[in-house]
Specification:
- The chain is mainly α and 231 residues long.
- α3 packs across α6, α9 crosses α10 and α10 runs antiparallel to α11.
- The protein contains eleven helices and no strands.
- The N and C termini lie far apart (91 Å).
- The longest helix has 30 residues.
Length: 231
């Protein structure tokens, strides 16, 4: 049998004792932080869904932030934690819808087609989204320029990301020999977006239907633009 040394036993007990509190301190806060973050996301989703429902049921002009709070079952002050005002609520709603539509459009992009059909593929899906709720879409197109609330800023960031995705298509077209190599892809993307927004404004102003704003207005404008971009 081995001999037990009393002093050694005491030392082992002293060294083992502090470990349990350190482990529990590092693990315990994580679920709490995750819970708060998830709760915030859930509240944002409820507010977003309530705003969208009321915008489509009552119209943008007749919807109030108080009504949104009641539909979402939150305090009115909670709405203003997630959106600065009603216009920013509209930006919140459209940010998520636009993001989903753009992602889906690029996922289904006809990669073997020339640049113009690719762009029309993307814009066709955006116009289809606007056509689902035209009155809400018209309110959005009016309010978007100059939007400065937190959701407006997120929407601006989404727009810049969209511009870079369009620039990527232009760059790919350059590699295929469709577009001149000395063209700045991002500058071309800005021109394309300006034509797209001008087509939306022609619909908003009542000059054309939404379908005509896409074809022939936007289609012919893009075709003219690419006459100057050809290699």
């Amino acid at each position: 049998m081995s001999k037990v040394i009393p002093g050694a036993t005491k030392r082992r007990k002293r060294s083992a004792a502090p470990r349990a509190p350190v482990a529990s301190a590092s693990i315990a806060p994580a679920p709490e932080r995750g819970g708060r973050a998830q709760q915030k996301l859930d509240t944002r989703r409820r507010i977003r869904d309530a705003a969208w429902a009321l915008f489509t049921e009552l119209g943008y002009d007749d919807t109030t932030t108080k009504a949104v709070a009641e539909r979402a079952e939150v305090a009115t002050g909670t709405v203003f934690v997630h959106a600065r005002d009603k216009a920013d609520l509209l930006m919140m709603v459209m940010h998520d819808r636009l993001g989903a539509v753009v992602d889906a459009a690029f996922e289904g992009l006809p990669r073997k087609e020339p640049l113009l059909p690719q762009l029309l593929h993307v814009f066709q899906r955006l116009f289809a989204m606007y056509g689902e709720q035209p009155l809400v879409s018209q309110a959005f197109v009016k309010a978007f320029p100059g939007a400065s609330g937190p959701n407006g800023e997120r929407l601006n960031a989404l727009t810049f990301a969209f511009l870079h995705r369009i620039a990527g298509l232009v760059r790919d077209a350059q590699a295929r020999g469709e577009v001149a190599g000395d063209i700045d892809p991002l500058a071309a993307a800005h021109n394309v977006f300006a034509l797209y927004f001008a087509a939306l404004l022609s619909w908003l102003s009542g000059f054309v239907t939404l379908g005509a704003a896409l074809d022939p207005v936007l289609k012919s404008s893009l075709a003219l633009q690419f006459r100057g971009l050809r290699a």
